[in-house]
Design brief:
Length: 117
């Protein structure tokens, strides 16, 4: 899978055929070419290819790239994996005595907090 940052002209600023309420902060649209388009307010937008092998994203604001990477990882990569037939997991992995132990659970369940303990 490849992930690219879009140049200014690659993604139109208006979101087409929204599947959610146009007043919503997060918006999703499935284009006629089966490309999934997501936009989060005036922060950024992402395109995910139908086969999940390419993700194109554009930062629409001056937010730090670290904020952008969190959404990219949580949404775009997860979506791309599902489109490739893979099941993404929410997990934190810790090293205990040279062995990797994975803590699985939904987002916000406290996996990272537990791992830091």
């Amino acid at each position: 899978m490849t992930v690219d940052l879009a140049s200014p002209g690659q993604l139109p600023s208006a979101v087409e055929r929204l599947l959610t309420d146009s007043n919503s902060w997060s918006q999703l649209a499935l284009r006629e070419d089966d490309v999934l388009r997501a936009r989060w307010g005036s922060w950024f937008e992402i395109l995910v290819a139908p086969d999940g092998r390419h993700v194109l994203c554009r930062n629409l604001s001056d937010l730090p790239l670290t904020s952008f990477e969190a959404y990219l990882t949580n949404f775009a990569v997860g979506t791309a994996l599902i489109q490739q037939g893979e099941e993404p997991l929410h997990a934190t992995v810790v090293d205990i005595g040279g062995r990797a132990v994975g803590l699985l659970g939904p987002s916000g369940a406290g996996k990272s907090t537990l791992a830091r303990s």
